[in-house]
Amino acid sequence: MNDLLAPLFRIDGKVAVVSDSGACPSIDVAPVLAAAGARVCIADRDAAAISALAQKVDPSGGTVTAIPTDIESEESVSALFAALRTRFGRLDILVNCAGVVANQPLAQTTLEQFDALQSLNQRSTFLLMREGVRLMLEAGNGGRIVNVTTMGTLHPALKGNAAYACSRAGVTAMTRAIAHDHVRDRILCNVVLPGAVRNKTRFHATLEARLAAGGTLEGPGTDANRLPLGMGNGRDIAAAVLYLVGPSGGYITGQSLTLDGGFLIT
User: Fold this and answer.
1) Residue 1: its pLDDT value, please?
2) Which class for 74: exposed (0-12), middle (13-18), buried (19 or more C-beta within 10 A)?
3) 97 near 20, Cβ under 8 Å?
4) How far is CA 141 from CA 63, 86, 130, in A?
5) How does DSSP classify residue 248?
6) pLDDT score at 213
7) What pLDDT does 148 receive?
8) The domain defined by 6-255 carries CATH number 3.40.50.720
9) 163 with 104: CB under 8 angstroms?
10) Sequence ranges of the domains in the chain
């Protein structure tokens, strides 16, 4: 990286946590942050997946580590940050990638489905941001938080996403509130809103079963004419995250960056 780009996108020596549940966007985000110079901890309940990812990105284990974490458990999340506190004494970057979608008509949505989406999409993000901010404040170096959610909080893309959309929209509101509360602490918080990006969220078991039985997804997001740039991929998310957590994102907080392939202008 040349002398003009390095001051914008290098994050050498920064300590980053990339959280997920089912290894979705984290498989692209973690390697990019590591390549930009950060010491990265991948936190996910899928111990085998994150261990394999950490080994692939950094076979030496010196800069990328995996800490199995159930991000829906307060005890597990607290243990994650206790380990970070012991090992590094600081946290500079927190990227929350986890998401689950059930995609069910409102009249057929069960309370179990609703609660499952709220737990993973919103409650876990609260837990991670709370503990992340505590450690950032202790270290006194400021920090960056990026929450990866969905463009569906701005405009309906698929039918049956009422429970999903509200769980994700709550994260946007929470992010903006935390950005407001901690801007003087130099803790900058933003949201990335992917649209038609493959593997950005995990499917709830009921949705997997419905699709396996021949069910389909419906809504404007399935219309190729509404996606002039086609489908996106995890690298698009990783690039947006790097922009927000690096020096390049030093003058932006409380904002939402939409990655929708042109959906909103069609």
Assistant:
1) 67
2) middle
3) yes
4) 20, 17, 16
5) G
6) 92
7) 97
8) yes
9) yes
10) 6-255
Residue ranges of the chain whose pLDDT lies below 50: none
Distance separating alpha carbons of residues 60 and 106, to the nearest angstrom: 49
Instruction: Give 258's strand partners.
Output: 193
Residue reference for tokens 């039918």? 159
Give pLDDT tens digits for 57-93. 999 888 999 999 999 999 999 999 999 999 999 999 9
Model confidence pLDDT, tens digit, residues 89-112: 999 999 999 999 999 999 999 999
Longest pairwise C-alpha distance within the chain = 57
Using DSSP, state whether 132 is helix, strand or coil: helix
Element spanning 130, H or E: helix 124-139
pLDDT of residue 5: 81
Token pair of 125, please?
């993000």
Q: Is the Cβ–Cβ distance between 142 and 90 less than 8 Å? A: no
Q: What is the phi-psi region of residue 110: left when phi exceeds 0, alpha when psi lies from -120 to 50, beta otherwise?
A: beta
Smallest Cα–Cα separation from 119: which of 161, 174, 151, 71?
71
- pLDDT score for 59: 92
- Identify the bridge partners of residue 66 per DSSP, sorted by sequence position: 42
Backbone angles phi, psi at 95, to 5 degrees: -120, 120
